[in-house]
Each structure stands twice: as structure tokens, then as C-alpha cells.
């Protein structure tokens, strides 16, 4: 395989039931049965994907105090699932979303280091934050972490976790020639970290892991989030699936990484994407439109807009115009437990009205038009071309792919698109690295014994 072409990073995404999932399809499987996770992971590994990505839900989502119907299926624990998948895969990275707000550094460091050892160097942590009392009421920190402190805590959490990982050097376990056993050095595992969020010290129980440190993933759209990700993450999830806005985000993050003293290639940019394949482009488009119409019902469209407007929009006609009333950001949240990705409610509402007027779209149609994140639609050859062109033009370094049909949908991509990407020389024919860092072409982390400070 030629290495002159920019290589495509691929992740497989399984995020639970939501409006992107065709849960009503007769072939749809369980969202919590281990067989679902196993089949998705094995299929991704068969397709030479870099990693399997698991999202997290710490609370059941609500609308006006009522639980979303889709959430009744529940969300299993991230570490339990990933540790189980380590036993049925050999090369695939195992990335888990775990909250930095509601977990302690020692527990996070121990669990991810253990997963890295169990998997032979394939663990990754998607660092997320939270400040809302709705999620926090499940935890002792409920409601009293100021929103302005969420990245302060996240950065200190990550620094403390790295201090724990670095408390063991690669040479701390030495072989005793007489006994044949490995013995630890006297100072192995010693750590101390002090900051506004933590004052901890002791001895860490897990030796340095195969990757040195698990891979760090993060998603940040706000200026503060971008700076945090550019300074700390190995990969960042991009919310942009179309050029040129994706290329602008790509340039911005890479520039921020360089400003933080890193090389531009030390951080990878990865948007999520769905796909619909057909024997012809017109067949794929027809399938996509039919699927999209089933996914975004009138009720779904109203709920998605309620998250922006923060108003009860149930009285509006989904086939009518976009609401003329302004959002109410000061009212109690009507939607609880969903990640809010729109930075300016008023600007977003104004944009949706403009798009609806310009394209003559109804409320539901404008949601369909504006809420998709660059679906990959066409023949297998067309989709392979779209992926290659997007990455080659620095829209991203790859994609995190999810299928509307769980868990069988990924098989079609692996069987029909992966061979074409391999023929183009942009996707490995086989794994060459031994760790996730190797496969992502990330530099080896440099351990540091400087473990005190915020």
C-alpha cells in the first residue's frame, strides 16, 4: 500500500437509540445486548478501522419533565463494555466517553490504565464535561459546579490523571535475575497533585501502560473548548461535515495546537458521519430521503427546535413555518440531558428562518436540511471518493461512522467501501502498529515526574 497519500482514520460509532437510529426497522438489534457491541467491534476490526467509539449517557433525557421514549432502553457502563470488547478484538482501539466532572482522577487513571493493559495498548478516553444540575443530581457534585469552572476542572482532572499515569516510568518494573520476578523501584507510583479542584497524593497501583498513556479524545466548539482540545487532545471530534466550514475548523484547531507548542499532526480532526449506499447514486439518494423522512418526524423536529428556542413548541405545526417568536434562554430548560451544540440561540434561530424562507421549507423540512452532519450518500465508489476528497482537502483526518441500522449496517460499508479505500491507497490493508497510538500515527508521550500543580 502506498503511503504517499494522506491516510484516512476510521472510527465506528455506537451511540444508543436516538433519532438517527432506525430502531423501528425489523432487522434492528438490541442497543444493550453484548452481541450488538461485539458484532459492531468485530466488523470494524475486519474493516481495519482504527477504533470503536462508545458514547455515554449519565442521565435519561427529559422534555418538560417527561423521559424521552427512546431512552427507555438505557445505557450500560462504558468500562464494562470496552473491557469485554478487549477480549474479542486484537487490534481495534477502544474509546470510551467518560465525564471529567463527576469522576475522580484516581479512579479515571486506574480504569483507563487497566483497560490499556488488558487490551495491549488500545484504550482511549473521550473527555467530556458537565455543569448542569440535571445531570449532577445523580452525583454528589450535583448543582454546585459553576459553569465557568467546567474546563478548569476538566483540565485539572486531565493533568492529575496524566500525573498518575506518569508516576511509573518504563523502567520502574525491573527483572530480578535470581527470582525471575519483576520488582518495582522504591519510588514507583508516587504522585502528588494540588490545584483549586484537587489536593491528592499517594501511590498509583497500575504500572505504565503499553501506550505510555491512553489516547485522549475531546470535542470542543466554543473558543474555550477549542483551546482545551488543541492543548490536550490527541484527536478532536469536529461538528462540521461539509467543506469549507470543516476546513476552516481544521485550520483553526491545527493553528491552536501549534500555538500551544505542539506539532500540527499531533492532533487529529474527526467528524461523525452516517452513510447510505446504493447500486446507483439515484437509488442511494432515494433510500436516504425515505430514511430521513422516517427519522425526522414532526415531533422530532419540534423537540430539536425546542432545544434551541427553550420554549414549548408543541402547538406549532411541523409542516408550517419556523416559529417567529424568539428563543427564551432565561427560562428553565425544557430539554434536559442533551448536549447543546449551538453557541448562540438567537443567531441560530435567525439562520433557520433565513434558510426556510430562501428555500421555501417548512419547520420539519428546515430541520432535515440543517441538522444533518454531512451524510455520505451514493454508490460505494462515490462514497469512497467523498471520504478521500474530504480528507485530502483537509476537511478532516478521517471520519467516525455510524449506521442507522444497529448492529448490521456497518457490514455493508466494510464489504463495499473499505476495499475501494484500500485500492486508493488511503486505508491500511492490515494493521501494522501494536497500539492505538501507532495506528493513529501519534507521537509517543513523554513521561514527566513533574506531578504537582494546576
How does this model look, in words?
The chain is α/β, with parallel strands linked by helices and 454 residues long. The chain has two domains: 9-278 and 379-440, Alpha-Beta Barrel (TIM Barrel); 283-371, no CATH class. 36% of the residues lie in helices and 15% in strands. The protein is built from 15 helices and 17 strands. Helix 2 runs parallel beside helix 3 (105-119), helix 3 (105-119) packs across helix 5 (150-165) and helix 6 (223-232) crosses helix 7. The longest helix has 16 residues, at 150-165.
Strand order of the largest sheet: 1-2-5-6-11-12-13-17
**Total count of strands:** 17
Quickly count the helices: 15
Compute the gyration radius: what is it?
23 Å
CATH topology of the largest domain: TIM Barrel
The count of domains is 2
Distance between the termini: 45 Å
Low-confidence stretches: 449-454
Mean pLDDT: 87
User: Major sheet, described briefly?
Assistant: 8 strands, parallel, barrel
**Beta-strand percentage range:** 15-25%
Instruction: Work out the helicity level.
Output: 25-40%
CATH superfamily of the largest domain: Luciferase-like domain
CATH C-level class of the largest domain = Alpha Beta
User: Could you say what the CATH architecture of the largest domain is?
Assistant: Alpha-Beta Barrel
Binding site for FMN: 97, 151, 222
Protein name: FMN-dependent oxidoreductase (Nitrilotriacetate monooxygenase family)
Organism: Nocardia transvalensis
Keywords: Flavoprotein, FMN, Monooxygenase, Oxidoreductase
Amino acid at each position: 500500500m502506498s503511503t504517499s497519500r494522506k491516510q484516512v482514520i476510521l472510527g465506528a460509532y455506537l451511540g444508543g437509540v436516538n433519532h438517527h437510529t432506525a430502531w423501528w426497522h425489523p432487522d434492528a438489534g438490541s442497543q444493550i445486548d453484548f452481541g450488538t457491541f461485539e458484532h459492531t467491534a468485530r466488523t470494524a476490526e475486519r474493516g481495519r478501522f482504527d477504533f470503536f467509539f462508545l458514547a455515554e449517557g449519565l442521565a435519561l433525557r427529559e422534555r418538560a419533565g417527561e423521559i424521552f421514549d427512546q431512552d427507555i432502553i438505557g445505557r450500560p457502563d462504558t468500562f464494562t463494555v470496552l473491557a469485554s470488547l478487549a477480549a474479542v478484538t486484537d487490534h481495534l482501539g477502544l474509546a470510551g466517553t467518560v465525564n471529567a466532572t463527576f469522576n475522580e482522577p484516581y479512579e479515571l487513571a486506574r480504569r483507563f490504565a487497566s483497560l490499556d493493559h488488558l487490551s495491549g495498548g488500545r484504550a482511549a478516553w473521550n473527555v467530556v464535561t458537565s455543569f448542569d444540575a440535571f445531570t449532577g443530581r445523580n452525583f454528589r457534585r450535583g448543582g454546585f459546579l459553576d459553569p465557568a469552572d467546567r474546563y478548569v476542572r476538566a483540565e485539572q482532572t486531565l493533568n492529575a490523571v496524566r500525573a498518575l499515569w506518569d508516576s511509573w516510568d518504563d523502567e520502574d518494573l525491573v527483572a530480578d535475575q535470581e527470582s525471575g520476578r519483576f520488582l518495582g523501584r522504591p519510588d514507583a507510583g508516587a504522585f502528588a497533585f494540588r490545584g483549586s479542584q484537587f489536593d491528592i497524593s499517594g501511590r498509583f497501583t497500575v504500572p505504565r501502560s503499553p501506550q505510555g498513556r491512553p489516547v485522549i479524545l475531546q470535542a470542543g466548539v466554543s473558543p474555550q473548548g477549542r483551546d482545551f482540545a488543541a492543548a490536550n487532545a490527541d484527536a478532536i471530534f469536529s461538528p462540521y461535515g461539509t467543506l469549507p466550514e470543516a476546513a476552516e475548523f481544521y485550520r483553526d484547531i491545527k493553528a491552536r495546537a501549534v500555538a500551544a507548542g505542539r506539532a500540527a499532526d499531533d492532533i487529529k480532526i474527526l467528524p461523525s458521519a452516517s452513510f447510505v449506499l446504493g447500486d446507483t447514486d439515484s437509488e442511494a439518494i432515494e433510500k436516504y430521503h425515505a430514511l430521513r423522512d422516517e427519522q425526522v418526524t414532526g415531533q422530532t423536529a419540534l423537540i430539536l427546535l425546542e432545544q434551541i428556542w427553550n420554549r414549548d413548541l408543541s402547538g406549532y405545526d411541523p409542516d408550517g413555518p419556523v416559529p417567529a417568536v424568539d428563543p427564551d434562554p432565561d427560562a428553565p430548560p425544557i430539554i434536559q440531558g442533551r448536549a447543546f451544540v449551538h453557541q448562540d440561540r438567537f443567531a441560530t434561530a435567525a439562520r433557520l428562518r433565513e434558510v426556510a424562507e430562501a428555500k421555501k421549507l417548512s419547520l420539519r423540512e428546515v430541520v432535515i436540511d440543517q441538522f444533518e452532519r454531512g451524510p455520505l450518500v451514493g454508490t460505494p465508489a462515490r462514497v469512497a471518493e467523498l471520504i478521500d476528497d474530504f480528507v485530502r482537502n483537509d476537511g478532516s483526518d478521517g471520519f467516525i461512522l455510524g449506521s442507522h441500522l444497529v448492529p448490521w449496517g456497518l457490514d455493508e460499508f466494510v464489504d463495499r467501501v473499505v476495499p475501494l479505500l484500500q485500492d486508493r491507497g488511503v486505508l491500511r490493508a492490515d494493521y501494522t502498529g501494536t497500539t492505538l497510538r501507532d495506528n493513529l500515527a501519534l507521537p509517543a508521550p513523554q513521561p514527566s515526574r513533574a506531578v504537582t500543580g494546576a
